[in-house]
Amino acid sequence: MSYGDAMNARTRSEERRAEIVRAALEVIAERGYRGASLAAVAERVGLTQQGLLHHFPTKDALLVAVLEERDKWDAVPNGSWRVDLLASLVEYNAMRPGIIQTFSALLGESVTEGHPARQYFTDRYTRVRASMTVALRAEYGDRLPNGLSPERTAPLLVAVMDGLQYQWLLDPESVDMPGAFRDFLRLLGETAE
Questions:
Q1: Backbone torsion region of residue 145, taken as left when φ is above 0, otherwise alpha when ψ lies between -120 and 50, otherwise beta
Q2: Is the pLDDT of residue 190 over 60?
Q3: Residues contacting residue 76 through CB under 8 Å, at least 6 positions apart
Q4: Which pTM value belongs to this model?
Q5: The pLDDT of residue 27 is above 50
Q6: DSSP readout, 121-189?
Q7: Can you count the helices (H) and strands (E) in the chain?
Q8: Which residues does UniProt assign to DNA binding (predicted)?
Q9: What percent of the chain lies above the pLDDT cut of 70?
Q10: b/e per residue, 57-85, with b = 16+ CB within 10 A?
C-alpha cells in the first residue's frame, strides 16, 4: 500500500469514526446511554454491529469518544474561561438542544455506581470548577462583590449552568436559559449584558 493510499484509508476511517460518534450522540439523546445499543448506532450509519466494533471495540469506548467530542465543541483557547464568555456559552447551548440533551442524559445516568461515565464526569467537574475559579479570580480578585471567594462561588456557577439546562430541556417555552444565566451573573456582580 502506498503512502497516499494509507493516508486516504486513514482519512476515511477518521471520517467514519466521526459519523459514528454523531450517530451515537443522537441515539443516546433519544434513549439514554443504557437504552442505546451498538446495534442501533450501527444501523444509523449503515454498518453491521461487527463493522462498528472495528472502530470502537466496546460501548464504553464509544461513550468516551462521544464525551470527548462534546468537550471539543466547548473548548476555549488555553483552557481558560472568562466570566463574560460564559453567557455566550449558555446562548450557544440554547441553539443545540440535542447535544445538551445527550450531555444531560449521560450526566444523570453517571451518578449510579458502576456507570462507565462516572469517572469521566467526576474528573470533568473537578476541571470545570477549577477553571471557573480561575475565571472568577481573574474577574473579581479574591472576593466577589457578594463577599464569597472564587472557590466558594465556582460550584454554584456550575450548578446554575447545569440546572438551567435541565429546566430548559423540560420546558423551553417557559425557561429563558440565557436570560436567567445573565440574571445570575448580575447577582455575582457582573454587569455585562
A1: alpha
A2: no
A3: 85
A4: 0.74
A5: yes
A6: HHHHHHHHHHHHHHHHHHHHTTS-TTS--HHHHHHHHHHHHHHHHHHHHH-TTT--HHHHHHHHHHHHT
A7: 9, 0
A8: 37-56
A9: 89
A10: eebeebbebbbebbeeeeeeeeeebebee
What Å distances lie between residue 151 and 125, 138, 174, CA to CA? 13, 12, 31
Cα–Cα distance for residue pair 185/47, rounded to 1 Å? 46
According to DSSP, residue 78 is labeled G
Task: Say if CB 36 and CB 24 are below 8 A apart.
Answer: yes
Q: Fill in the DSSP letter of residue 54.
A: H
Residues near 63 by Cβ (< 8 Å), separated by ≥ 6? 24, 28, 33, 106, 116, 117
Task: Compute the average pLDDT of residues 77-91.
Answer: 80
Q: Which three cell numbers stand for residue 88?
A: 455566550
Rounded distance between C-alpha atoms, residue 14 and residue 59, angstroms: 18
